[in-house]
Amino acid sequence: MIPGLTSRRRFRDLSEAEILALAISSEEDDARIYASYAEQLRAQYPASAAVFDAMAAEENQHRHLLIETFERRFGKVIPLIRREHVAGFYSRRPVWLVQNLGLERIRAEAARMEDEAAEFYTRAAQASTDPGTRKLLGDLAAAERKHEAKAEQIEAGTLPPGARREEDERAHRQFVLTWVQPGLAGLMDGSVSTLAPIFATAFATQNTWTTFLVGLAASVGAGISMGFTEAAHDDGVISGRGSPVKRGLASGLMTTVGGLGHALPYLIPHFWTATVLAGIIVFVELWAIAFIQNRYMETPFLRAAFQVVLGGSLVLAAGVLIGGS
After folding, report:
1. What is the DSSP string of 67-135?
2. Cβ(223)–Cβ(256) under 8 Å?
3. DSSP for residue 45
4. Do 224 and 121 have their domain in common?
């Protein structure tokens, strides 16, 4: 037997009192999660924080109603039973896995929470053979559906006109500053700066394995350098660019990817096949950089394409000339 699973009860084996106790603890957990989201968002997104404050208050109200129902039917002592005690019961992701992923991710998680609870209660009601339990589960499913509708009403009533759009724009701007900008800088550096050493080695040696090793070393080395540089030069507190660790990872990984893109073809033992494929990949990389600049940095596409493609072509030509001389 797998350790930990033998102590978990099956949902169908729970009594109505235990199901009600489970609902009470679940409502309490959800209220705490919403309160944590509100606290996380309060500084940057006060309107959305107010929404989650209201949702936490709603969950607490439902918990009080459930407690009153339990005490009326079963007495004052509520059994200690939580989600993790029941096999197959829906779980909640730890707050720290969600709160650092941005406003939209938190909103999506909240919607998932309400829908997941309602869906579980609905399925459980359909599977139940006891009329009293079936009715109880159906009531809980209806309550969760009302929670979801109420959440939409709360958001519509709490967010003033334009507030959600303003917060979405702020979240998008933060995403660009934290992930896109350093990632784009890394991709440009990795794609362009490694062209000369890779193609110089290729035409100087015409040995695909040696060329691949040089490309691998250049890509990984550039990735480490760019990652540490990005993380070290700005802690993000004053600039508002976000976590230096996130920015360092984005820059370092994309630098490595940019270089490996045209180094990997040299795993092919035939020199000209590998070189032609590497050239095609370089072309795709440069146009991808131009697209990202246009999409996220609002750089006119033709200007971005001219700058990136021209610069990359000059570096590529330098590598070929040096290697072939």
Report:
1. HHHHHHHH-S------GGGEET------HHHHGGG-HHHHHHHHHHHHHHHHHHHHHHHHH---HHHHH
2. yes
3. -
4. no
Concatenate the DSSP letters of all residues of 292-309 into one string: HHHHHS---HHHHHHHHH
Residue 254: CB partners within 8 Å, gap ≥ 6?
Answer: 182, 183, 184, 186, 187, 190
Give pTM, 2 decimals: 0.57
Mean pLDDT of the chain: 81
192-205 pLDDT, tens digit each:
889 999 999 999 99
- In one-letter notation, the amino acid at residue 70 is F
Mean pLDDT computed over 126-150: 73
CB of 37 closer than 8 Å to CB of 95: yes
* Residue 4 pLDDT: 43
Structure-block tokens of residue 32: 């705490």
Q: Residue 180 corresponds to which tokens in the numbers above?
A: 């896109």
Instruction: Flag whether pLDDT at 61 surpasses 60.
Output: yes
- Beta carbons within 8 Å of 231's beta carbon, 6+ residues apart: 244, 245, 247, 248, 251
Structural domain includes residue 4: no
Residue 269 confidence (pLDDT): 94
- What residue ranges in the chain does DSSP mark as E strands? 9-10, 86-87
Cβ–Cβ contacts within 10 Å for residue 189, how many?
Answer: 20
Q: C-alpha 324: how far from its chain's center?
A: 46
Q: Which range of residues forms the domain containing residue 259? A: 169-324
Q: What is the dihedral of CA 319, 321, 323, 325, to 10 degrees?
A: -160
Domain total for the chain? 2
**What whole-number distance in Å separates Cα of residue 208 and Cα of residue 270?**
7
Question: CA angle, 152 as apex, 148 and 154 as ends, to 5°?
Answer: 110
| CATH assignment at residue 122 | 1.20.1260.10
Shared domain check, 71 and 156: yes
